[in-house]
Amino acid sequence: MPAHLLVEVETHNQELMTEYRKHTPGLVGQFGGRFTVRGGATETVEGDWQPQRIVFIEFPDMAALKAFYAAPAYQPVLQMRLDAGRSRAVAVEGEACAPSHAFLMVDFAVTDPATLATYFRQVQPLVSAQGGRLVVRSDKTEAIEAGWQPERLTVVGFPDMAALRACYFSDAYQALRNLRLSATRSRAILVEGV
């Protein structure tokens, strides 16, 4: 099962971060990983989640993700990123991202499970109509950096930002969004992929 590394980065030393970015693609590739989001445009649509930069990397499985993160060759490169600013990261299993190039990411805590179940039953046809597909829907995230551990994480991929925005801001989805918000404490962003 594919595994994803979701990293939120706030940069304070741009020169060091630029150096870090030069080294990561080759290292990610050595472990079968690929960037699906690498700092694309981000729009906060729910709550107070306002990341400066989001990175979302897909690996063939959780073992490959953890091998990458623990690799001796990555440790000095990782230290560059840590020294360049603040970051937090989680690992989570899910589905392959392809062919998605835009993502709705929702970090939430459930307050009303029955209402949330109703939302999930109704939302799939609406999302599918815009080419959207579920990439991650999990209550099993693993904190990798800075203790970030969402109670639940959902990532929905879309062909592009136009399709994502058409779905998210549609009247039909806004009604379902309100149903979800009544059953959760949510923070959500729209993110442009690679």
How would you describe what is shown here?
This protein is of the alpha+beta class. The protein has one domain (3-192): Alpha-Beta Plaits (2-Layer Sandwich), CATH 3.30.70.100. The chain is 38% helix and 36% strand. The protein has six helices and ten strands; from the N terminus they run E-H-E-E-E-H-H-E-E-H-E-E-E-H-H-E. The strands form two sheets. Strands 2-4-1-5-8 form a five-stranded antiparallel β-sheet. Strands 3-10-6-9-7 form a five-stranded antiparallel β-sheet. Helix 4 (113-129) packs antiparallel against helix 6 (171-183). The longest helix has 17 residues, at 14-30. The two termini are 21 Å apart. The mean pLDDT is 96.
What keyword list fits this structure?
194 residues, alpha+beta, Alpha-Beta Plaits, five-stranded antiparallel β-sheet, 6 helices, 10 strands, 38% helix, 36% strand, globular
Percent of residues in helices: 25-40%
SS summary, helix count: 6
Given this structure, which CATH class is correct?
A: Alpha Beta
Structural class: alpha+beta
Give the number of DSSP strands: 10
Biggest sheet strand line-up: 2-4-1-5-8
As a whole number of angstroms, the C-alpha radius of gyration is: 17 Å
Q: Give the total of domains.
A: 1
- Rounded to the nearest angstrom, the distance between the terminal CA atoms is 21 Å
Tell me about the largest β-sheet. Answer: 5 strands, antiparallel
| Helix and strand pattern | EHEEEHHEEHEEEHHE
What is the CATH T-level topology?
A: Alpha-Beta Plaits
Give the integer mean of the pLDDT values.
96
Low-confidence stretches: none
Protein name: DUF1330 domain-containing protein
Organism: Vineibacter terrae
InterPro entries: Dimeric_a/b-barrel, DUF1330
